[in-house]
């Protein structure tokens, strides 16, 4: 009986030790899972992480082994998060964000001073602005002054040395930037909007390039249109879209939950991608600006949330070229 008791205690200890290891997550495994969830595709996830497709698949299986439950249901042509996968996705994104912030805080130099940055308005409510907010949290001795404007205005302010750095649409009159990020444009309407001719358009005033893009695309499809609302405010345009007032050409970062994306089957031709880049004035920059410029292009790749059938967020239509 004593031997049996010792055996029972030993087995119990092994079970306890095994249970303690369940749910301990490796950062690389979480990165693979989040990338698959946000791209909806193992191959795309591998490209995003610079890993091979077999590597991502193996890491996903290892994570499922750690959890003890399937995280993604795989069908012939689709993938879907399981209930456990949806729970883990919420926590994994927070863990990875905290991990990246800790990495940046430990690796970043000590910076002090003021930096003037410019942002396109459609990105000010999303992750792009949060990049700068996280930057000043990591560097408490840095003061951030942010200007939100259209790209033409941002380029003017850069030329006048009113800004130290700006994220703006590529200016064909300037030298091609080393790193350009493409962001897809969409036809956005309210859920209850019924497409009709002529198409009521919600537009931004000149010199917004989205105007001409909209006109050319509709003309190529033989559609008629009229200018129903013109506004300088992206937020006002989003409200107009939500209310069903018309259709607006918007980049991925400006697409809100509840918007309907109109496609070719709805009579709306596909739209090109916008091209964004990080710009600084030609003159020598402070260490703050140099550091931001060096890291911002990489951060910009993930600045727009992904929307897939798995996560319910914006589609991953931002890529570096």
From the spread of the alpha carbons, the general shape counts as: flat
**What is the helix fraction of residues, given as a range?**
40-55%
CATH superfamily membership of one domain, which one?
Winged helix-like DNA-binding domain superfamily/Winged helix DNA-binding domain
What structural class should be given to the helix and strand makeup?
alpha/beta
Number of strands: 12
Describe what you observe in this structure.
- The chain is of the alpha/beta class.
- It has a domain at 2-105: Winged helix-like DNA-binding domain superfamily/Winged helix DNA-binding domain (Arc Repressor Mutant, subunit A, Orthogonal Bundle), CATH 1.10.10.
- It is built from ten helices and twelve strands.
- The chain has helices at 2-21, 27-39, 42-49, 53-67, 83-107, 127-138, 151-159, 209-220, 234-243, 287-300; strands at residues 72-74, 79-81, 113-120, 142-149, 165-169, 180-189, 199-203, 225-230, 247-251, 260-262, 273-279, 318-320.
- The strands form two sheets. Strands 3, 4, 5, 6, 7, 8, 9, 10, 11 and 12 form a ten-stranded mixed beta sheet that branches.
- A hairpin with a 4-residue loop joins strand 1 and strand 2 (79-81).
- Helix 3 crosses helix 4.
- The longest helix has 25 residues, at 83-107.
């Amino acid at each position: 009986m004593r031997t049996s008791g010792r055996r029972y205690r030993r087995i119990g200890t092994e079970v306890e030790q095994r249970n303690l290891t369940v749910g301990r997550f490796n950062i690389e495994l979480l990165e693979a899972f989040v990338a698959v969830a946000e791209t909806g595709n193992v191959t795309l996830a591998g490209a995003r992480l610079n890993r091979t497709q077999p590597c991502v698949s193996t890491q996903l299986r290892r994570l499922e082994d750690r959890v003890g439950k399937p995280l993604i249901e795989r069908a012939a042509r689709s993938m879907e998060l399981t209930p456990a996968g949806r729970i883990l996705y919420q926590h994994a994104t927070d863990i990875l964000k905290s991990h990246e912030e800790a990495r940046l805080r430990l690796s970043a130099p000590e910076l002090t001073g003021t930096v003037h940055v410019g942002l396109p308005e459609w990105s000010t409510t999303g992750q792009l602005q949060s990049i700068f907010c996280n930057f000043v949290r990591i560097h408490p001795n840095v003061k951030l002054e942010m200007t939100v404007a259209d790209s033409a205005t941002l380029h003017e302010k850069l030329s006048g040395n009113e800004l130290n750095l700006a994220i703006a649409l590529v200016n064909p009159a300037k030298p091609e930037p080393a790193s350009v990020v493409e962001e897809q444009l969409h036809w956005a309407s309210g859920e209850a909007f019924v497409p009709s001719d002529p198409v009521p358009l919600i537009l931004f005033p000149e010199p917004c390039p989205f105007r001409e893009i909209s006109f050319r695309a509709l003309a190529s499809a033989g559609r008629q249109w009229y200018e129903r609302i013109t506004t300088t405010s992206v937020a006002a345009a989003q409200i107009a879209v939500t209310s069903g007032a018309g259709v607006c050409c918007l980049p991925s970062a400006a697409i809100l939950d509840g918007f309907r994306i109109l496609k070719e089957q709805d009579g709306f031709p596909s739209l090109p991608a916008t091209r964004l880049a990080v710009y600084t004035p030609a003159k020598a920059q402070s260490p703050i600006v140099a550091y931001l410029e060096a890291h911002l292009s990489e951060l910009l790749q993930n600045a727009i949330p992904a929307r897939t059938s798995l996560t319910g967020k914006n589609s991953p239509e931002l890529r570096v070229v």
